[in-house]
Design brief:
- The chain has eight helices and two strands.
- It is mainly alpha-helical.
- It has one domain.
- Strands 1-2 form a two-stranded antiparallel sheet.
- The relative contact order is 0.14.
């Protein structure tokens, strides 16, 4: 299961597994992808609210999904939605204090999506890339180390 992280006054997010999400997309024949897109955009909105950022806090997860589903017939709306999603992740990471060198590059994210969606393999990397950076934003906004839990030595202590 995904680990839940509270953002204080503005809700919570989940640290999501790339592999579980990929499996759910495959099992549901792609339907879960739209649910996932709504959930992650909603988490970014909650981060914006918790950090008092009106631009991020007023984003609309429903409009993002609508741009993918209905706008897909026009081609441009889904591309704008995916690029703006990368921008929202970057804004959330900046608000949460993640150093610039560890923040998402929205252009790389976009290029993995398009033309990546036509080539399948880059689309897979796009999903991995945005999931990794979404998780960093959620961890940092929840007060956790953004790179994940520090490595713990699993070896038993040596007697002196």
């Amino acid at each position: 299961m995904a680990q839940e992280v509270e953002f204080g006054k503005a809700g919570e997010g989940k640290i999501r597994s790339f592999w579980v999400g990929t499996g759910l997309v495959i099992i549901t024949l792609g339907i879960y992808a739209f649910c996932w897109y709504y959930f992650v955009n909603d988490e970014l909105k909650d981060i914006g609210i918790s950090k008092d950022d009106q631009n991020l806090g007023q984003s609309s997860p429903a409009m993002s999904v609508t741009a993918l589903v209905i706008g897909g017939w026009v081609i441009i709306p889904p591309l704008l939605s995916v690029y703006n999603y990368g921008q929202r992740i970057k804004r959330a990471q900046r608000l949460a204090g993640i150093p610039r060198q560890d923040q998402i590059d929205p252009t790389v994210s976009f290029l993995l999506y398009f033309p990546g969606a036509l080539l399948i393999v880059p689309l897979f990397f796009h999903y991995w890339y945005v999931t990794k950076h979404q998780n960093r934003a959620v961890r940092a906004a929840g007060g956790l180390p953004y790179l994940g839990a520090p490595e713990v030595d699993s070896a038993p202590p040596t007697p002196a």
